Amino acid sequence: MRQAALPRARLDAIAIGGSAGSIEALGVVLPALPAGFHAALLVVLHLPRERPSLLCNIFRQRCALPVREAQDKEPVEPGTVYFAPPDYHLLVDSGPRLSLSVDAPLNFSRPSIDVLFESAADEYGPRLMAVLLSGANSDGARGLRAVQAAGGATVVQSPDSASSMAMPQAALALIQPDQVLPPARIAALLTTLHKEGLS
């Protein structure tokens, strides 16, 4: 497990992406975040397109932070968890505001992690952390590279802690992230950032 220095800029957003096995990882990370956590959390998971998501119902009961499904054009509020709805890309526009798109799937996925990470990198730059979790394809690797190029912090779930290793491995083949950690250590990192006044 690799660890680098904490971000120097205060984080205004944490973008999180994952696919197979990522709900279990999120179940460790999100409930650990305290009320008063500053950064907004923008979450894209690969979900079946044909039925409603139950993620908000699952996590609303377990989290100290407000949890909701992202709505098109709504302002991003600090300390709020936003889940991308099924079959829509989630982007961040200037403001910052959320935007939903029905553009073609990327990496066979809509919502796409790359789409979220790249748009969030454009808006937040060094005030962004991107976290890539367990998953079965390469979505998210290119987006992490964009976050890194914009000066943001990058975290990848350690492959040996992921039930589907392909997504973390694809990211590690493309970039050297700031942190490679299992879910419990990702949760600890975010709570440390909060205590340090960085999130």
UniProtKB/TrEMBL annotation:
UniProt key word Hydrolase: yes
Give the first-level EC class, as a single word: hydrolase
Q: Which SUPFAM superfamilies match?
A: Methylesterase CheB, C-terminal domain
CDD domains in the record? CheB
- MF GO annotations: phosphorelay response regulator activity; protein-glutamate methylesterase activity
**Transmembrane feature ranges:** none
Question: What residues form the catalytic site here?
Answer: 19, 46, 139
- One GO BP: chemotaxis
Q: Which residues form the CheB-type methylesterase domain?
A: 7-197
One Pfam family of this protein, by short name? CheB_methylest
Organism encoding this protein: Acidovorax ebreus (strain TPSY) (Diaphorobacter sp. (strain TPSY))
InterPro entries linked: CheB_C, Sig_transdc_resp-reg_Me-estase
The record ties this protein, via Gene3D superfamilies, to:
Methylesterase CheB, C-terminal domain (3.40.50.180)
Q: Which reaction does it catalyse?
A: [protein]-L-glutamate 5-O-methyl ester + H2O = L-glutamyl-[protein] + methanol + H(+)
EC number per UniProt: 3.1.1.61
The name on file for this protein is protein-glutamate methylesterase
What's a single GO CC term here?
cytoplasm
Q: Which UniProt keywords apply?
A: Chemotaxis, Hydrolase
